[in-house]
Design goal:
This protein is mostly helical. It contains eight helices and two strands; from the N terminus they run H-H-H-H-E-E-H-H-H-H. About 60% of the residues lie in helices and about 0% in strands.
């Protein structure tokens, strides 16, 4: 009798009896907090893994695709300069569309719900880094963080890799996102339009081609300055310059391409336009002299 009573009590206490209350379901544990890359943990040695290799291969694939397209789409008699310009602008468009377009996707659609232990007002947590100013919330959401750091897809991992060199690309930096919106939705179509112009005869419409190339090159240089100048003026708090691979490959080399080529295009464009103007002035002078005869 006592044993039966104790058994019944145990069932009721555990919620397993027929007349007992329903068993309580334990709440699922909160999702793990994404850990940001720490420069101190990296040191000076390279951190090469599968994501690193795949990311670099993707860049080479886009470059190879641009070169292959130049062989197929450009006239056979195109000069080396025209071919280089075509490859650069198509590569530029592909990088903007696939890479930086995926960055914007992460910023707008990949999110992480903040744990209740996070104090939004204090903005302090050992593993959470906010990139927006105080009392400023991306998309007006106070309880969510957006960006590649909180995704698991291939493009999220790609930007997590680059964020090892520049933390801003793992989350949402207002200046960077604003520039990338212009880059993806204006720079990409403009680069493709330039490629279409370069397919025409080199002697026809040269000034038109150079005008648009100068516009895009100027925008690229301005975008690069506005991306890194805030870091330089504040001691580069988001850049990891202690690791030679992140410093020289990710930051200097890849970003340097969008400095060297635009500067070269500005030089070539200036030379072409001044030459055309000199030719036009010479024609006007000849016409004027003929009238005086």
């Amino acid at each position: 009798m006592a044993r039966g009573a104790s058994s019944s009590a145990a069932q009721n206490a555990g919620g397993g009896g027929f007349w007992g209350s329903k068993p309580k379901v334990a709440a699922p544990p909160p999702p793990p907090i994404p850990r940001f890359h720490s420069a101190a943990a990296v040191g000076s040695g390279p951190q090469i893994d599968a994501t690193t290799v795949i990311s670099l291969l993707c860049v080479l694939i886009l470059l190879g695709g641009a070169y292959g397209a130049s062989l197929r789409l450009l006239p056979k008699g195109s000069s080396k300069k025209t071919r280089v310009l075509f490859i650069w602008h198509l590569f530029d468009a592909l990088i903007h569309f696939f890479f930086e377009g995926s960055f914007l996707y992460n910023c707008f659609f990949i999110s992480y719900s903040l744990p209740t232990s996070f104090n939004v007002a204090a903005r302090q947590h050992p593993h959470i880094r906010l990139l927006t100013p105080p009392d400023v919330y991306w998309l007006g959401s106070q309880n969510k963080l957006y960006g590649a750091n909180y995704g698991t897809g291939p493009f999220s991992r790609l930007w997590q890799e680059y964020a090892k060199a520049d933390r801003r690309w793992g989350g949402v930096d207002l200046g960077v996102v604003s520039l990338e919106v212009l880059t993806v939705f204006i720079g990409t179509p403009l680069a493709l339009w330039i490629c279409a112009l370069l397919r025409g005869e080199e002697r026809k419409g040269a000034l038109k081609r150079w005008f648009w190339m100068i516009v895009l090159a100027t925008a690229e240089l301005y975008g690069g300055w506005m991306t890194f100048a805030p870091e330089w003026f504040t001691g580069s708090p988001n850049l990891d310059t202690s690791n030679w691979m992140f410093m020289w490959l990710y930051l200097v080399f890849f970003n340097g391409l969008w400095v060297v080529f635009p500067l070269w295009i500005l030089y070539e464009g200036y030379s072409a336009m001044t030459s055309a103007m000199s030719h036009a002035e010479m024609v006007d002078l000849v016409k004027y002299l003929k009238k005086g005869e």
